[in-house]
Amino acid sequence: MPIPFGKRPLLLPFTRIASPFTALAVGRGDVVTFVRRMENLDYIEAVKFLAQRAGLAMPEDGYDDSYAKLKTRILEINRETARFYHQCLISPLGKKGLDYLRERGLSDKTIRHFGLGLRPKAGMRLSSICWAGVSDG
């Protein structure tokens, strides 16, 4: 609540909160829900995350981690796909696309940071390149 000071209110910042998003998330459920939202984790992963931060061991008995393995596998596929498209952009095949991005004012650092890429018109098969590096786990 602002404290009146003359004609303009004096605002007191709450310095214990690290970011505006954290300020919005405070008071919306328990710590597990908060960690699930902030770290994009499922319930078990959030509990493991919190246990690790607290230095506690989590029992592994009876836990079905097939969902976590599937999620990890999908993330691997997405990462390899992004690498493939980025490699296409920075290869001679992607010269026109790379020139276009540079004309638009994007630096090589920005292109690399955001993992921008280029879909080739023909000749290269994403499926064979992507699936080659992914285990059947």
Characterization of this structure:
This protein is mainly alpha-helical and about 140 residues long. Helices cover about 55% and strands about 5% of the residues. A hairpin with a 2-residue loop joins β1 and β2. It is elongated and about 55 Å long. It starts with a strand and ends in a 5-residue tail after the last helix. The relative contact order is 0.09.
Number of helical regions: 7
Give the fraction of residues assigned to helices. 40-55%
How many strand elements?
A: 2
Low-confidence runs of at least 5 consecutive residues: 1-5
Alpha carbon gap, first and last residue: 54 Å
Taken in chain order, the helices and strands follow as EEHHHHHHH
Question: Which structural class is indicated by helix and strand composition?
Answer: mainly alpha
Broad shape: elongated
Radius of gyration: 23 Å
Residue-averaged pLDDT, rounded? 76
Beta-strand percent range: under 5%
Describe, in short, the structure shown.
This protein has 7 helices and 2 strands, in the order ββααααααα. The chain is mainly alpha-helical. A hairpin with a 2-residue loop joins strand 1 (3-5) and strand 2.
Please render the helix and strand layout as text.
Elements: E1 3-5, E2 8-10, H1 20-25, H2 31-39, H3 43-54, H4 66-90, H5 95-103, H6 108-113, H7 126-132
Antiparallel strand pairs: 1-2
